[in-house]
């Protein structure tokens, strides 16, 4: 309990002047996150990372899977996933605090080889994100990583050492199988990851399962099954969420009108675009954008960003 409290106090100090939101740091691939109030459900895409919660609580929804996690737990993500994020417990006096480290497959695989680690049983199965209780050793390493932000001169020497320790703790923990999936280049998750990248790079184009399955070196039927197992979405649902999130960004930034945004992301029918947009986000494009703009003022914008991280 002492180390967990120390972790939250350190993150509180380093984020207090930054305010709500996701803040990249001087340490490569490390971000600190703060939210001073609960948020609405927000659609985003998580990248491969591990997030240690130091205070408060959050909910992440992937397809039909709901994951609730709080202080003393961590969320691990093995590939890019469209999700819904929501900070569920946070106040001005006790904000939601989190430390997020983006994962490096090369570093993980090198560490596995160096330490002679073996993949846990069933390391290549299951959803591409999980939550688990952080061990005292993980929390201690995460706290030391956060404390380095208060001594920038020590970052170049000590940050790589702490990061290696933290990855080692994660790889050898109960949920280490998910990190092993990232490091194993020929794992099923890595195969699906190649298909995910292709869909992300070509989400505006019509989706042909045979083409995407070939990127994963799988038959179409096997690909569809394994894609759903890892992402909790069908390939078509995955593409649709990417399209609609990009259209929402374009409309919200006033870069285009609703009809043009639909065409820009691959929709040929404005009515279909409007229906599917409202089904995902709860309101038609223009009304949804107006609601979001009214909420994105002051600290609300930072809280929204924190929920998306």
Q: How does this model look, in words?
A:
This protein is α+β, with helices and mostly antiparallel strands and 309 residues long. The protein folds into three domains: 2-184, Jelly Rolls (Sandwich); 185-233; 244-309, no CATH class. 50% of the residues lie in helices and 19% in strands. It is built from 13 helices and ten strands. It has helices spanning 2-16, 105-115, 136-147, 155-171, 176-183, 188-201, 209-215, 220-231, 235-252, 258-264, 270-281, 285-295, 299-308, and strands at residues 21-24, 30-35, 42-46, 49-55, 57-62, 65-70, 73-77, 81-89, 96-102, 129-133. The strands form two sheets. Strands 1-2-9-4-7-10 form a six-stranded antiparallel sheet. A hairpin with a 5-residue loop joins strand 1 (21-24) and strand 2 (30-35). The longest helix is centred in the C-terminal third of the chain and has 18 residues, at 235-252. The radius of gyration is 20 Å and the shape is globular. The model has no long low-confidence stretch (mean pLDDT 90).
Mean pLDDT: 90
Q: What are the low-pLDDT stretches, counting only 5+ consecutive residues below 50? A: none
The CATH C-level name of the largest domain is Mainly Beta
Fraction in helix:
40-55%
Largest sheet: 6 strands, antiparallel
Task: Specify the structural class.
Answer: alpha+beta
What is the CATH architecture annotation of the largest domain?
A: Sandwich
Q: What is the domain total for the residues?
A: 3
One letter per element, helices H and strands E, the order comes to HEEEEEEEEEHEHHHHHHHHHHH
Number of distinct helices: 13
CATH fold title of the largest domain: Jelly Rolls
The tally of beta strands, per DSSP, is 10
Percentage of residues in DSSP E strands? 15-25%
From the spread of the alpha carbons, the general shape counts as globular
How would you write the strand order of the largest sheet? 1-2-9-4-7-10
Cα-based radius of gyration, to the nearest Å: 20 Å
What separation lies between the terminal Cα atoms? 26 Å
Keywords: Transcription, Transcription regulation
Protein name: AraC family transcriptional regulator
Domain HTH araC/xylS-type: 193-291
Organism: Azospirillum aestuarii
């Amino acid at each position: 309990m002492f180390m967990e409290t120390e972790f939250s106090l350190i993150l509180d100090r380093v984020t207090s002047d930054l305010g709500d939101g996701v803040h990249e740091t001087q340490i490569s691939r490390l971000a600190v996150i703060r939210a001073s109030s609960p948020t609405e459900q927000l659609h985003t895409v998580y990248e491969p990372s591990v997030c240690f919660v130091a205070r408060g609580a959050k909910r992440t929804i992937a397809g039909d899977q709901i994951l609730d996690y709080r202080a003393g737990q961590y969320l691990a993500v093995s590939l890019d996933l469209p999700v819904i994020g929501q900070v569920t417990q946070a106040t001005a006096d006790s904000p939601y605090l989190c430390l997020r480290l983006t994962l490096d497959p090369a570093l993980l695989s090198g560490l596995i080889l160096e330490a002679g680690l073996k993949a846990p049983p069933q390391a290549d199965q299951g959803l591409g994100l999980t939550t688990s209780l952080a061990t005292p050793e993980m929390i201690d390493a995460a706290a030391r990583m956060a404390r380095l932000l208060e001594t920038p001169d020590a970052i170049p020497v000590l940050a790589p050492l702490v990061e290696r320790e933290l990855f080692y703790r994660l790889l050898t923990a109960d949920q280490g199988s998910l990190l092993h999936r990232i490091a194993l280049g020929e794992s099923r998750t890595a195969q699906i990851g190649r298909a995910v990248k292709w869909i992300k790079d070509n989400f505006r184009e019509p989706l042909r399962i045979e083409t995407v399955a070939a990127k994963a070196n799988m038959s179409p039927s096997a690909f569809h099954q394994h894609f759903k197992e890892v992402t909790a979405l069908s390939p078509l649902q995955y593409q649709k969420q990417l399209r609609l999130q990009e259209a929402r960004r374009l409309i919200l930034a006033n870069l285009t009108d609703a009809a043009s945004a639909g065409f820009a992301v691959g929709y040929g029918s404005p009515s279909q675009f409007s229906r599917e947009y409202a089904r995902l986000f709860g309101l038609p494009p223009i009304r949804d954008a107006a609601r979001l703009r009214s909420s994105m003022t002051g600290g609300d914008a930072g809280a929204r960003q924190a929920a998306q991280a």
